[in-house]
C-alpha cells in the first residue's frame, strides 16, 4: 500500500528554482580539501508517477536490496535495456501538454539510493558540501533521512551543506528525480529527453577558513604587454603565481608583463589561492575581451570564429560523458582547425571548459534555457515573459556565470536558445552584465540586440550574410553598430553541409562578419542492437522528429564525417594558393619558368613558426619529387609569394601539379609532429584528354552486335560484355537517394527538392528505345527517358565506338518539354558482377559533391567498394568521388572525357532510398556503379538555405564520354 505524497507533484510543478541549495560559486576540480566521489553503482527504483511511492526510501534502514542497480552518472532510460523506460526525441515540441507549470501525471520518477562511508582520513572538523553537477529534470535530496532540499536546472550545479548530517559510516543518500517538472518547460532543447543523475555527485570537505567563491580577473593590455591580475575572494587569502613573481593578498590588483591567453596560444599560468583553511590551484589566462569599433576583439585584435555547436553526447551514455570523451572532442576539434565552441544549449560538464582553457578554444557558454515549444502557440505563456518564472531564469544565469567565470576560454555568455523574447531574458542580461562586465552577452532571439553585445543569427543565407557584412542590412541603430556572427549555420544533417566555403569567403571578406558555429558537432544516435544507431521514433515515441537529431560533423562514434573533413579545409589557418604556372592546354603543357605559391597566415594571433611546409610534384597523380619549402614566419594576416622549385623530371605530355602542405613542426598538446594543418594544390600541366579513334565497325549477328571488345543485345542495344566482363543495366541515371538536405525541412517551401523530384517521378524514369543503329563506325542507340504521367523527358543518345581494344561511349542528353526542377544527378549507371577493389585518379580520398568538395585533393587513391560508403545514420546518397580522370573497378578501366564523379555500392539507389537505418542495407551480388557527368549540390536545406544557384544541376543539353578498357 502506498501513500500519496502530494508534495512530490507540488515540487515538480513549482516554478521556483528550488530550496535548500547554497549560493552558486566558482567550480574548481580540486584543492587540498578532501573530497569523496559518490559516482558509481546506486540503487534505483523507477515508478510511473511522481507520487506512486512515498518517501520512506529516504529513511535510514530502508531495505533497497531488491531494487535495480544503476550507474551514476547516467540516465535511467539508457540503462536496463528498456526496463526503466525509453528515450524520447523531439526537436521543439514538448512531449507533454503545454499547460505550464503543470506536467503529466505520468511522470517517470527515479528514486536513487546510495549508502556510503566516509574515508578513514576524512577530517573530523569543518563542514561538508554535497555537490550535484547535473540532474535531469529535478531532484529532491535526503541525507540520513533529513530532507535537505530540492532543485531544478538540469545542467547546472547545486550544492548543499551537509556536514552536520554526516556519520563516519552508513550514510544514506536518497535522491528522487522526476523526469518532468516545471523546469522541463525551460529545457526544450532539440535533443533526447533523458532523465537521471547524469553528472558527478561529490562530497566535499569544507575546512574552516576554506575557500567559498572567488573571481579571477586577469586582463591583458596589448599596448603594454602587461597583464593585470586581481582575485576577489569571499574568504580573504593570498594569491601567488610563481612564474610571474606574484604573491599578493586577494582583492589586490597587480600588473606585470605576461604572455596573453588566446585560443591559438593558450598560455596559462599556474597559481594558487590560499585561505586560512584551503589551497586552491588556479590556472590563469590573461586576456581582454571587448567590443571595439563594432568588432569583437580579444587582446586588441578582431577574432574570427571557426566554430561548432557542441551538445554533449555519447551513443551509449547520452549526456553522461567521461573525461576521455570530452578530451576526444577537444582533440578532434583542434585537429580539424576548429577554434570555437558554442555550448549549445546549456553549460557543459565543467571539466570540458578546463580542456578549452588548456588546448585553446573560444567558448560561448550558453545557459540552460530553451522554451522553443511555445512557438506552437504564438509564444503565449512563454515563461521568459512571465515574472513568476524570472527567479528561475536568474538562478540559471547565476549558476552558469558563477560556476564558469574563471575560465579564460569563456569569452561570451549566452542567455540560452530559442526562447522567444521577454522581460525575463532582459533581467538575465542585466544581471550578467552587472556581475561580469569583462565578457560579451549573446542571445540570438534578441533580434534588435536590446540586451546583447553582438548581432547573431542562425541559418541566414549567403546573400543576407553578405548584405550584413556590407552593412546594408536594416535593423535598429544599435544593431547596426554590432559585430555579426552566425551562431548556427551549415546544418550538418546527413550528407553535407554544402556551401561552407561560400560562407567562409564572406567571413573573410567582411570585417563585421566574425564567423560562425556549424550546427552541430555530433550525431546524437543511440547505440541500438538491431538498428546500429537509433534516432527519433525508434523507441515508439508518440511524437518525435526522426533523424533530425543526427546532424553532426562527427558520427555517433565520433568518426569524422566528410562534412568535418570539408570544414577543416574550408577553415584552415593557412592559405596556400597559386595559379598554374606553365603553359597549359588540352594536350599537355610546355615547360616554363618556376612558379610561386601564395602563403597567407589566416590566424588572428600566432605566426607560422610552429609549421613546416612541404612541396611535392605529382605526375599523373604519382608523387615524383618532394622537399621542404622555406616559408617566412608570417605575422597574422600577412602573406608572401614563395618560389617553388622547378620540377626536375618530365612533365610534358602528362597531367602534373604541385602540392604544398603545412605540417606541425613539432608535437603539440593536441597534434603530433607532421599533422597536416593546411594544404593547397595547383596545376603545372593540364590533363591530356583520352582519345579513341573509331576504327572498328559494329558487327551484327542474329542476337548480338559486337563492336571492338564489346557485345550488345541486338534488339535493345544494351551493353552485355566488355571482353570477359559482364555489364548489366547500363543506362542514363538521374536519380539519387535523397539526402536529408534534398528532403528539406517541413517549414521550408523552396528547398524541398526531394518532394518535387518524387512528385514528378524522377525516381521512376522510363527508358523508351527509339532506334538501335549499327553504322559504319558506331553503334547508336536513341532513347527517350521520362517519367509516367509527364510530358517532359530527356532525349538520350548512346553512341558506341571502338578502336578495336577500347570501347568509347558518348552520351548526349537533350531535355524535352518544360523542366522546372534541377536534376539530382546526370550520368550512367551499370552493374558489375565481381568488383571489390577500386583505384582512381581524381578527387579523394573521401567523398565530395559540388558544394562540399573543398577537401577533395587530386591524386591516386585506392579503396574498396565497402570503404567507399559513408555511413550516414539514415542512409542516403553518399560516397561520390569527384573529378575522376580514370577509375578501375571489376576488371575495367574507365576514363572520362571530361572528368566524372564515381560511385559504387553493393545495393541499388532504390534500395539505398528505401533504407531507414544502415542495418537495412544488405549487399547483393551486383556492384552498382554510377559515373556522373554532374551532380546536384548538397546545400543545407534540412535547416537552412538550399543549394546555391551555381551548384544546382540544371536540365540542359549535355554530352560526355567514357572509355572502357578491360584490364589485363
Ligand atoms: C535551431 C536550434 O537552435 C537548434 O537547437 C537545432 O534545433 C537546429 O535548429 C536544427 O537542428 S532552431 C531553427 C531551425 C529555427
Automatic annotation (TrEMBL):
Signal peptide stretch: none
Entry similarity comment: Belongs to the glycosyl hydrolase 2 family.
UniProt keyword Hydrolase, yes or no: yes
Residue ranges occupied by any Beta galactosidase small chain/ domain in the UniProt entry: 706-965
Source species: Streptomyces spinosisporus
Catalytic reaction list: Hydrolysis of terminal non-reducing beta-D-galactose residues in beta-D-galactosides
EC assignment: 3.2.1.23
Keyword Hydrolase belongs to the record: yes
Class in the EC hierarchy, top level: hydrolase
Name under which the protein is recorded: Beta-galactosidase
Phylogenetic lineage: Bacteria, Bacillati, Actinomycetota, Actinomycetes, Kitasatosporales
Keywords attached to this entry: Glycosidase, Hydrolase
InterPro entries reported for this sequence: B-gal_small/dom_5, Bact_Beta-galactosidase, Beta-gal/glucu_dom_sf, Gal_mutarotase_sf_dom, Galactose-bd-like_sf, GH, GH-type_carb-bd, Glyco_hydro_2
